[in-house]
Design a protein that fits this description.
- Helices cover about 30% and strands about 25% of the residues.
- A five-stranded parallel beta sheet has the order 6-7-8-5-9.
- The radius of gyration is 39 Å and the shape is globular.
- The two termini are about 65 Å apart.
- This is NACHT domain-containing protein.
- Keywords: Repeat.
Length: about 1400
């Protein structure tokens, strides 16, 4: 029988009270309040006796003459430094008891004294001494108040008052719950006689709300037999406890004096039994409520919740987590529960503890208790063993999903948010917290507790914890929400809690500074219970182990619960008698104790235990030399996600029966399951730390080094190359993953656990370690990418892990030295990035959409062209090669931070055209941007993506440059004639200085000052100014300039005294220090914006067109390195600080692009360019039979005609005019130009590829041709021309045959067309609103007028952006058939931005946007 079941027998009244566990203090034998224990009374008092309490510990003094009885001998110790630095409510070293504050709710509990907190808050008058505890664990005692001793006498009255609390509880209970009433009444009687203590009375008080809740529940009639049974069992437990309690008042005075400590423990234990009984009942009750609530979630909401990106196993109910052993950690748990139940206390609680001190176990217990009381909203248990549970970006989405399942109102807001913004889970941490948690909680006013355990196990490269930075930003916005956090006191965690906003909102408990006696007592209790369990299963272990053995075990544990757990697991072996295992352990060298770092020190008792276990498992029969043993150990320790025994066997290509004995031999170090399909992982993180550290794991044969990663990489690649196949999960055609109801079942059935692991994590083992297997790995990677790449993407799509492909291909690029392999990996990377949304949403559309739409000359097309399975034919628009930029996107609607190593860019909401200057802090963590339209500076924290603040710059003028101070708290800004400095934390102006000469170039930080440059008569002066008002601008240097110097577009690289400027189209770089020209380039057409990399290694220049020119520094100056072509015009280029990447933002903020800088230089002439034009304004027309399509760029001079039969350009015509409209028939092409209508006769399809100019008709333009757009009626009789400039003749209708103007109208739009019968004309605005007129006769033979029919905001049939055959183009780029079948999914950069960039025929679709060099033409009927 398990120990936890057998131990419940001790609660029967017939058994001895010796089984009950701590913390009740009996009063004096005369019943007048004489104290025999030094910590009777609330914190800061001693009940009038002679002991002074210092916050969380107890400091003794000599007894006073007024004491009724002398203090117990041995209590007159002097104050020690250790006693001054114990955590709140730490037990006394001798008694292990707790001093509690029973002041009314809302009154300040003496404890942590926060920096900056109002010291005038009400505190109990009994407070004798307090201390300030900071996140780094330091504690300082404050001055004792002499007057406060008078108030200590009031403690007796307050203690008796708690008896009244218990009596009230008892009297308030319903008759239906009489056992509870009797039990609490007996407790009242006991404390009326014993006068009670803070430790027990706090527990009585904490039961008040729970009993009241039960009372209401028990009043309601029930029909459920299971519920009746649970209530009956609860009443029986209460009756048993009540009978036991009745024994206490019957004791004689002498026995009460003699047994006061034992009685205290027994009664306190009975209260624990009472609480656990209620907790067990409420846990079942809450689970029933939760399950019932989950059943009420409708199907659509379930899909959203289930598919939302999160860490499924992170909640407290998963992974079989266990809480604290009954009777242990009481002081810690009581303190946390007091904080949790009182919402007037600080909103954040940090359980700060060193490795192995039991933080996670305590967090599990708190989560269970809070759930039972209905207070727990969500929990996240971080674990570095799991990829998702160690990823910071999974924490807030996971918490949000749990809150949505828990609270109906929250769920409604959450579902609506995710439905409108599906990518919110990929936002910055700040946006995640704000959108997913803070805003819904504020709207719903939900009161709840959120538990986050083991923050130190998250992969966080920031110097200050990113999660805590975000929490500091938002915690005060949700006053009804409490956050319970645990973590080691690592530097980044401590820095996080030192943040000003978080410091004032956080209570801190130093777990590793709880009095050793209390911790050792808990560890001893764990050992006792564990050995009782062993004795139950192994006969002959009565009275075992001996007291000396138990003492030695507790000494070696040295306060580490992890040692105790490992010891018990080691002793409990199926193959060896427990006594022999214990003797073997105690005979081994114990090592020194744990000395208190965040990691374990070398040669501790724990290390000795690990060495002993490994030696016993593998020393015999040469097992430590067996490669299979090394591989299995590496699979356990180095796996990115825990592997099951069967998965390890599959991965390593061995029989499971070869794996299980190895695991069994070290079972005490692992979490094992009977089912070999369940994952195995180290029982504690300290074991991987030990076995991967050669200074701790002295047996080098068993030490796992980084090179063992390669021993897992090769099996992963081999397994994928041998087993991956197309459509392994047998998914239906064209289906989205979310539409497959049994997707998970299919994945588990067709993709083995080992293969799932290999597909997701093989790249984690691609490490740069010296190896003889490099050629073997390179060959395996070639095979994988050339033959299995798409099948691998299928699996990742089904598993929802496509982002792993991005990381994996980057890893290959960093690892490989083979140029051809690098090219292949880069091509595969471009394929994933280009079609990420398509592939991640639908595995079948890898073959339906992604592969058919990938560039014709790409390597992916070369190797997988035969796998194409299209449902629609792409006639035109598929490029030959990938776009040179590695990423591109339009500005989204919300702030995002995009990171490429050290390169950051922020997209501000609705401000894509506002920013005239942006700057990064020196550490890359902060960003500031100046908006000229809103006259403000906005600062962001790039670790979280959150806004720090806004600073008004009204009347300051245009911003020329900005620079952060080295500390990052101040910002210097150079305006047209002023230099101003700001404090970004307070958002205030520090100083303002006038600049006498015209300032140019940039402002930069120089030590603790700012520097800037001015130009006067061709001379450049360098000025220095401080961040404070006292330091005015001072000229400190001057720079020489060449003879042809111009301040036009001047750019400075101040660290090297280099200048860049433009003179008569020439780009010049001048070394002012050495008086040397570094660059004088004349082949850049219309140069405009220039910048240097921070080191000066690269110099880049953007033009008014699409080109960007990059030069690299050489001893002789700058040499051409690379030419880049942007998707937009007027680019603003920047080089990343590491010199590895280029970013370009197009003018008007339309797009952003990123490039990797080539490792070797390329000729500028070898890169094609494109015209400087606005690609979003194409003119497209289809012939009536849809055999021909005419395409022209508005304001260009040429028209391209595509023959749909061949799918290729058939004819290109020079229109000899600026084009503003086209019309094509089966035998004619009509071009509307600058005041003329030109018609060509088309040749026969098989004849001469030239057109004959038939005739030209002149007409009078209603405006400049650049502002006109024309359309021809289907019957070829009318011409409609719309002007962008609004006037009385914004819309004109002409006679196509003679150019006569027939009618005019005032309109707002300029996209025009005719109705199919040619009797009506319409015009559309960019917002989609359409105005329509009818052409009617108005006297005379040619008299016509336009009669307005109406205005429509969402017009449907009869317009070119709607298919006459029922096809649909959705906003997310999906093309659906009339039956709803998903035919094709356009990648993001192919999608139209508005419906005006769409043209439908019967079975033809043409789309375009500003990214495309030509429209995309799709033919849909071929595969239907």
């Amino acid at each position: 029988m398990p120990w936890y079941k057998r131990s419940k027998k001790s609660f029967q009244p017939s058994q001895t009270l010796a089984f009950f566990i701590p913390a009740y203090i009996a009063a004096g034998p005369l019943g007048i309040g004489a104290d025999l224990s030094p910590d009777i009374g609330p914190k800061g008092s001693n009940g009038g006796r002679g002991y002074r309490i210092v916050n969380r510990g107890i400091v003794n003094r000599q007894p006073e003459p007024s004491d009724v009885l002398p203090a117990t001998p041995g209590f007159e110790d002097t104050i020690t430094q250790h006693e001054r630095q114990v955590p709140l409510d730490a037990p006394n070293e001798r008694s292990g008891l707790i001093a509690r504050d029973l002041s009314p709710v809302g009154q300040r509990e003496p404890g942590i004294q926060k920096e900056g907190e109002n010291q005038d808050r009400a505190t109990p008058p009994a407070a004798v001494g307090t201390q300030s505890v900071h996140p780094d664990g330091n504690a300082q005692e404050t001055v004792q108040s002499g007057e406060s001793r008078v108030a200590i006498r009031d403690w007796k009255d307050r203690a008796i008052g708690v008896v009244g609390i218990a009596a009230d509880i008892a009297m308030g209970a319903a008759e239906a719950f009489s056992p509870l009433k009797a039990t609490l009444a007996t407790i009242s009687a006991v404390y009326a006689q014993y006068q009670g203590t803070a430790a027990v009375m706090d527990k009585v008080e904490s039961l008040r709300s729970r009993v009241a809740a039960l009372e209401e529940v028990f009043k309601k009639p029930i029909d459920d037999d299971a519920e009746k049974k649970r209530r009956k069992e609860l009443q029986i437990k209460f009756k048993s406890i009540e009978e036991t309690l009745r024994l206490f008042p019957q004791k004689s005075l002498i026995l009460r004096v003699a047994d006061h400590v034992k009685d205290n423990e027994d009664v306190s234990g009975l209260l624990e039994d009472l609480r656990e009984a209620i907790n067990d009942y409420q846990m079942v009750q809450q689970m029933a409520i939760y399950d019932q609530g989950c059943k009420l979630i409708d199907a659509a909401e379930k899909v959203i919740l289930n598919n939302f990106r999160r860490a499924p196993g992170a909640g407290y109910q998963r992974e079989g987590r266990k809480g604290c052993l009954k009777g242990t950690r009481r002081m810690v748990l009581d303190q946390i529960e007091l904080w949790a139940r009182d919402f007037t206390k600080l909103p954040v609680y940090w359980l700060n503890g060193l490795a192995g001190t039991g933080k996670s176990t305590i967090a599990q217990t708190i989560a269970e208790r809070m759930f039972a009381e209905g207070q727990l909203g969500a929990s996240f248990f971080c674990s570095r063993d799991f990829e998702d549970r160690s990823n910071l970006h999974f924490i807030f989405p996971t918490i949000a999903v749990q809150l949505a399942r828990r609270y109906t109102k929250f769920r409604s807001i959450f579902v609506s948010l995710v439905d409108s913004d599906p990518d919110v889970a990929h936002d910055s941490l700040s946006n995640q917290m704000d959108k997913l948690i803070v805003q819904p909680l504020k709207e719903t006013s939900i009161s709840t507790i959120i538990v986050i355990d083991a923050l130190d196990e998250c992969k966080d490269k920031e110097s200050t914890s990113a999660i805590l930075s975000v929490l500091a930003q938002f915690v005060l916005q949700v006053p009804k929400v409490k956050f319970f956090l645990t973590g080691r006191p690592e530097p980044r965690i401590r820095k996080g809690f030192h943040l000003p906003l978080l410091t004032r909102a956080t209570d801190i408990f130093l777990l590793h500074e709880v009095k050793p006696d209390q911790v050792n007592s808990d560890i001893r209790q764990f050992f006792k219970e564990s050995f009782l369990e062993l004795a139950y299963h192994h006969p002959g272990l009565d009275h075992w182990p001996a007291k000396e053995q138990m003492d030695l075990l507790c000494e070696r544990a040295a306060g580490l619960f992890v040692y105790a757990v490992a010891t018990v697991k080691f002793i409990d072996s199926q193959n060896y008698p427990p006594k022999k295992r214990l003797d073997l352990l105690l005979q081994s060298a114990g090592g020194s104790v744990h000395v208190g770092g965040t990691e374990f020190e070398e040669n501790t008792s724990l290390d000795s235990l690990y060495r002993l276990i490994l030696q016993g498992a593998f020393k015999s029969d040469g097992a430590e030399d067996d490669p299979k043993v090394h591989s299995v150990l590496a699979a356990i320790v180095l796996a990115a996600n825990p592997l099951s025994p069967s998965a390890i066997a599959t991965l390593l290509g061995v029989d499971p029966e070869d794996v299980t004995p190895i695991l069994s031999s070290i079972h005490s170090l692992l979490i094992l399951h009977e089912d070999i399909s369940k994952p195995v992982r180290p029982f504690h993180k300290s074991f991987p730390d030990f076995i991967t550290n050669p200074t701790r794991c002295t047996n080098q044969k068993l030490c796992i080094s980084p090179s063992h990663h390669l021993g897992l990489l090769v099996p992963c690649l081999t397994l994928m190359n041998n087993t991956l196949e197309k459509n392994m999960c047998q998914l239906p055609e064209a289906v989205n993953n979310s539409q497959v109801e049994d997707l998970q079942e299919r994945a588990d059935k067709y993709i083995s656990q080992g293969l799932q692991y290999a597909c997701r994590f093989w790249h984690k083992h691609l490490v740069n370690e010296p190896t003889t297997k490099r050629d073997e790995i390179t060959s395996a990677l070639y095979c994988f990418l050339e033959k299995k790449f798409l099948y691998w993407l299928e699996v990742l799509s089904v598993l929802g892990a496509l982002r792993n492909a991005v990381d994996a291909l980057k890893f290959v690029g960093e690892w490989s030295e083979d140029t051809s392999l690098l090219d292949l990996a880069n091509d595969c990377f471009r394929f994933v990035m280009g079609f990420f949304e398509v592939i991640s949403t639908s595995a079948p559309h890898i073959y339906h959409s992604a592969l058919p739409l990938s560039p014709k000359g790409s390597l992916v097309q070369r190797y997988y062209r035969s796998q194409v399975d299209p449902l629609a034919k792409v006639t035109c628009g598929v490029p030959d090669l990938w776009d040179p930029s590695i990423a591109n996107a339009s500005f989204p609607e919300f702030i995002r931070a995009v990171t490429l190593k050290q390169l950051y860019t922020v997209y501000p909401k609705s401000r894509g055209r506002d920013w005239e200057e942006i700057v990064f802090s020196s550490d890359g963590h902060l960003l500031a941007g100046h908006s000229w339209t809103e006259d403000c500076i906005v600062t962001w924290d790039l670790k979280t993506g959150g806004v720090i603040g806004e600073i008004s710059t009204e009347k300051a003028g245009n911003c020329k440059s900005m620079s952060f101070s080295d500390c990052g708290t101040m910002l210097g800004v150079l305006f047209q004639k002023t230099i101003m400095t700001y404090n970004i934390l307070s958002n205030t102006c520090i100083s303002s200085h006038q600049v006498q000469e015209p300032a140019v170039g940039t402002i930069w930080t120089y030590g603790e000052c700012l520097r800037f440059a001015t130009v006067n008569s061709g001379s450049i002066s360098i000025w220095q100014v401080g961040f404070t008002p006292a330091h005015t601008p001072t000229r400190v240097a001057s720079l020489s300039t060449p003879e042809d110097f111009s301040s036009s577009s001047l750019v400075l690289l101040p660290t090297l005294s280099w200048l860049a400027f433009i003179v008569e189209g020439r780009v010049i770089v001048w070394d002012a220090q050495n008086h040397k020209v570094l660059l004088n380039h004349v082949d850049v057409e219309k140069p405009r914006i220039m910048s240097f990399s921070s080191s000066g290694l690269f110099f880049i220049c953007g033009t008014e067109g699409t080109e960007l020119y990059l030069w690299r520094k050489s001893p002789s100056g700058y040499l051409p390195h690379q030419k880049l072509v942007s998707r937009g015009i007027w680019n603003f280029p920047l080089v990343s600080p590491d010199g590895e990447s280029v970013i370009s933002i197009t003018s008007y903020g339309k797009a952003i692009q990123l490039w990797h800088i080539a490792k070797s230089s390329t000729s500028f002439s070898g890169v094609s360019t494109q015209a400087s034009c606005d690609h979003e304004d194409f003119l497209v027309d289809l012939s009536a039979d849809e055999s021909l399509i005419a395409v022209a760029q508005r304001t260009s001079h040429t028209v391209t005609i595509f023959a749909m039969k061949s799918g290729a350009p058939w004819l290109v015509i020079d229109a000899d005019t600026v084009i503003c409209g086209v019309k094509i028939t089966k035998d004619k092409i009509i071009v509307i130009g600058d005041g003329k209508i030109v018609t060509w006769n088309l040749p026969g399809r098989d004849g001469d590829f030239s057109a004959d100019r038939a005739h030209t008709v002149a007409f009078q333009n209603s405006g400049h041709v650049e502002y006109l757009r024309a359309s021809v009626a289907p019957n070829l009789d009318y011409l409609a021309i719309a002007s962008l400039r609004e006037s009385e003749e914004s819309l004109c209708v002409y006679n196509m045959h003679n150019g006569e103007k027939l009618a005019v109208a005032r309109s707002e739009g300029w996209i025009t067309g005719f109705t199919p019968d040619s009797c009506g004309v319409w015009i559309s605005r960019y917002d989609g609103v359409v105005d329509q007129w009818t052409i009617v006769e108005e006297g005379g033979s040619n008299g016509l007028k336009l009669q307005k029919v109406g205005t429509w905001r969402t017009p449907q049939d009869g317009f070119p952006w709607h298919s006459p055959c029922g096809y649909q183009l959705t906003d997310d780029g999906r093309i659906l058939s009339s039956s709803g079948k998903h035919l094709l999914w356009l990648p993001h950069h192919w999608r139209p931005n508005t419906k005006l960039q769409v043209r439908w025929g019967r079975n033809i679709l043409v789309v375009w946007n500003e990214y495309l060099l030509e429209p995309i033409i799709l033919k849909l009927e071929v595969y239907l």
